[in-house]
Amino acid sequence: MSQIHELAARQQYLYDVYRLFFIPTESEGDYIPLLPVGAKGPEVLFITGHTSQVANYLENFIGQIPEKTLVVTSCFGGNFKKYAVRKNVYVPRNGLDFCLIRRGKAFGFDFDISDAELGFYNATGGLIERIKAAYSML
Asked: How much is the pTM?
C-alpha cells in the first residue's frame, strides 16, 4: 500500500527539518523515494512503513542503497538487526515493539506521525544528534 496521499505533507516535514526541497522519484515497490533538490543529501536513508513493507523493501534493495545509515520508522525494530551488519541501523527509541503513531493534525502535520518522527523533528543539533535523540542504534 502506497503512502502517496501523504506525499505533500511529508515533503513539507522534510523541508522544515532540512530547509531543502525534496522531489519524488520513480517508485521502488511500495515506496516513493524523495530526493533533495540542489544539494547532496545526507548519507542517511529514512524509511517509514509497516514492518512487512520495510522488510520487503530492504530485502529487495539493500544492495543498491548507497547510504551508510538507515533510519527505520516501523514497528518491531529488532527485525531489522540483520541489516546492521552492512549499515548503521536506527529504529524508534521507545522500549516497545510498536512504533506509536499520533494524529498529525494535533501537532500541525497533515499526516499521522510517529513519536520517533516527532522526537526527531523537535530535537536540536546536527543530523546524527537528532537521530540519536529519537532513535536507537541496533
From this structure: 0.80
- List the Cα angle 104/109/115 in 5-degree steps: 50
Q: Which position has the grid cell 530492504?
A: 58
First to last CA, the chain: 27
The Cα 23–Cα 68 span in angstroms is: 21
From first to last of the 138 residues of the chain, give the pLDDT tens digit.
456 777 888 888 888 887 777 778 787 777 777 777 766 656 888 888 889 989 988 998 899 888 899 999 999 999 999 999 999 999 998 767 888 889 989 999 888 899 999 999 999 988 889 999 999 999
* Strand partners for 70: 45, 89
C-alpha cell at 65: 542503497
What cell does 85 get? 551488519
Grid coordinates belonging to 17: 527539518
